[in-house]
Amino acid sequence: MKRFLPVLMAILALSGVYSTVLAQNTGYYEKDTVRQQPRQTTIEIPEGEGRKPMAKPQSEVPLPLLDRLRLGGSFGLGFGTVTNINLSPMAGLNLTDKLVGGVGVTYMWLHSKRFNVNSNYYGGRTFLMYSLLPMVTLQAEYEGLNVEYFDSVDRRYVRKWIGSPLIGGAYTQPLGGPFTRGVHMTLLYNLRYQNQLNPFNGQNISPYSSPFVFRVTFL
To answer: Which stretch is the leader sequence (predicted)?
Structure first.
């Protein structure tokens, strides 16, 4: 029995060494989760005596197109002697923080049994809106409309395109929407209203009743 004692002790010693080596190899092949985390390194360079700190370069990145886009429009309803429905969807883009440019399409329907009027007006417009103050917006616009008027010589209705340059301003209330940023109570003046006349009877053929145009616009 004594002759086997040294052999038994040698086997136990070798088993311990093998277990230690196996544990080390297993730990080496395990996934290193710490190394997968982003590391941030901050190096501070001390400023020398009499040395001015270096200014970091600043670059302005323009906002994405989707963040500068505005969608909305204006509408109007009138009932009475003359029924007037006015729809005008609009799309705009912030050219700067205060300047918005855009386009829109316009459709108007006028109906009156008393005056035997049933007319459709359609066209488009382009506009610029400048935010002078948080609640004051200046606006310039050019609107082209296809209108209908009566030819007293041929005794029939004819159509004609008229162009209207409009200027004015608006009282603006912010809405905070992603595309519709505010509501604008706008008053515009038509610079060509007095020249938009029926060549046969001299009456005005503009769908607006006066050179002053009032709109409520969401944009």
So the answer is: 1-23
